[in-house]
Specification:
elongated; single chain; 10 helices; Multidrug efflux transporter AcrB transmembrane fold; 2 domains; four-stranded antiparallel sheet; Alpha-Beta Plaits
Length: 302
């Protein structure tokens, strides 16, 4: 399937310096927001405690529900509206530990039933994670991202050159930081499901990068023995694979958008991470991973 006419050439390298500058600004803003402004909103998997998912038949405001939780005995409860407004659905998270989690869930259920009527309150689910378990999950979850990037660095090193692996890993870090930054900015929860989305983004972005690197290798080998401009060669390689990049990325993007809009609260954060990651991944593959080849000395053959 041809989305673009054969032989099309777009001089991507003409704009790569502006793209790299934009990426550096976005990364800086994300890091400032994460570490200096809002931080990360960890879900029950990583923060521990009791999480109750509840839906009301009547329209309930967040402030009203917060006042009710205070009167029940949970002044520090974190309340988050989920789904569409007409669902009147909320997540209520309290900082409890151990066996007290069951007592807390029962206390919340009884308190909401007394305040709004038991027939108007629907408890959709209850999750409980202890403090020790949550810290272990957080450590292993983020360690999985580090290990994944390390193994991919070795893979690109052996398949191409070590210098190319630097470009690929920097592009992957770009995608993950931008996605985490969007989660921090929007206040969405970081959970094990979201970590799975980050790992999926890494794999998806790397796949695009490898395809372009393969085409760059082919074109360099064809031009071997003659003089050539590496910038034009890289632009030509990206242009030749652009149709494939658009087709695969748009397919994933549309599926994730449908999941985000219609998949419900369970898959909502995963789909959001994938949407941001796919857009960031295509951008980094074209304007970060491949252009970095220009700045690395000694690239002649792969």
């Amino acid at each position: 399937m041809e989305l673009l006419r054969p032989g099309i050439f777009i001089d991507f390298m003409k704009y790569y310096k502006y793209a790299v500058a934009l990426s550096l600004i976005l990364i800086a803003l994300c890091l400032i927001w994460i570490f200096g402004v809002a931080g990360l909103n960890y879900g029950i998997d990583f923060s521990g405690g009791t999480e109750v998912q509840v839906a009301f038949k009547d329209d309930i405001k967040t402030d009203e529900l917060r006042s009710t939780m205070t009167s029940v005995g949970f002044p520090n409860a974190v309340i988050q509206s989920i789904g569409i407004a007409s669902d009147h659905e909320f997540l209520i998270r309290t900082p409890t530990e151990g066996d007290t989690g069951y007592a807390a869930a029962k206390k919340i259920e009884d308190g909401l039933g007394n305040a709004y009527g038991k027939d108007k309150v629907d408890i959709r689910g209850v999750n409980m994670v202890g403090a020790a378990v949550s810290q272990d999950l957080k450590r292993k979850g983020f360690m999985s991202l580090v290990i994944a990037n390390g193994l991919l660095l070795i893979y690109i090193w052996f398949r191409f050159q070590f210098k190319y692996s630097i470009g690929a890993i920097l592009a992957l870090l770009h995608d993950v930081i931008i996605t985490i930054g969007f989660f921090s900015f929007t206040g969405k929860e970081i959970s094990l499901t979201v970590i799975a989305a980050f790992l999926t983004i890494i794999g998806f972005s790397l796949n695009d990068t490898v395809v372009i690197y393969d085409r760059i290798r082919e074109n360099i080998n064809k031009a071997s023995g003659s003089s050539y401009d590496l910038g034009n060669l890289i632009s030509a390689s990206i242009s030749q694979t652009l149709g494939r990049t658009i087709l695969t990325s748009m397919t994933v993007f549309i599926v994730c958008l449908c999941l985000f809009l219609f998949g419900g609260s369970v898959i909502h954060d995963f789909a959001f991470a994938m949407i941001v990651g796919v857009v960031a991944g295509v951008y980094s593959t074209v304007f970060i991973a491949s252009p970095l080849v220009l700045s690395l000395p000694g690239i002649k053959k792969l």
